[in-house]
């Protein structure tokens, strides 16, 4: 039996898309974005960088391999909604312990299927990422637009997703100790740092630089996270104070924060970069890496001219900055996700680079 559409998405430009609801049925006001990954909906659902966002999947079938206990990026997902063409409620996977809908219901995440995701993605590309309302099919466009107009975009996402207390992740025979500033850190980043022989002490985003120094790190890491980097001046000022203290490595939001700490500027992209198929040229080796990305903001290239940062990586699709480095301070960062969960493994060498910088500092 063909179900009648019972939910709809209303964009702030007045467009509407009908579909069939699943998981949480409450109304959601969110920023609507799209992701071009072919796999990894569990990691996307549990990535804190998607806080307050509704994600349109360009891949048409979602839910077919269920949810596995070992693949979460955070314990408490904070994404608003998933928008899909076809939702599969009957997964086939020996690792699956729950359906996607089960998990979405547990965390109050809304879902809508049978949406024309190709048309919606094209509209986001043309119009740009924007506020959207996921609501009942009975809600009029006029009422929906009033709700969107009267709903403020939150600016406290990092404070909501960052851990509240210091946490340690240790491994046997560790060579180095990393202090990771958690702005919404994916768990696979910790796994990768553990893999290359690092004990990790994860600290809340607003941890003072003197507290970080007192932990005696060999290196400092700044994580990914949601929202506008200028919303977290605490972290920017912390990095200003820590420049030159020890090697520093930043990913995604961490890349933007490091750039701001050196005096560069950031801006919001029209529709962001989200997916596991973005080509990036490494200007140091001239190699092209296929990367996994998830961000709305970018570093303004011209603003780097008056800083001590050099551009090391460039996106081949739109020529945006994908990596920066200050050799003097042993600081480097990339806009994309080298831990790639899921995604291509082209950029895991960056964790080895971090190790080499810490070895140089120790032997200096």
Task: Give a structural overview.
By secondary structure, this protein is of the alpha/beta class. The chain is built from ten helices and 21 strands. The chain has helices spanning 41-45, 100-106, 117-127, 141-149, 157-161, 187-195, 209-214, 233-242, 253-261, 349-363; strands at 7-11, 16-23, 28-35, 53-57, 61-62, 67-68, 81-83, 86-87, 96-98, 110-113, 130-136, 167-169, 176-182, 198-204, 219-222, 248-251, 266-282, 288-299, 310-315, 321-326, 331-334. The strands form four sheets. Strands 12-14-13-15-16-21-20-19-17-18 form a ten-stranded mixed sheet, with helices on both faces. A seven-stranded mixed β-barrel has the order 1-2-10-7-4-3-11. The radius of gyration is 21 Å and the shape is globular. It starts with 6 loop residues before the first strand and ends with a helix. The relative contact order is 0.13. The model has no long low-confidence stretch (mean pLDDT 96).
Can you tag this structure with a few keywords?
single chain, 364 residues, alpha/beta, 7-stranded mixed beta barrel, 10 helices, 24% helix, globular
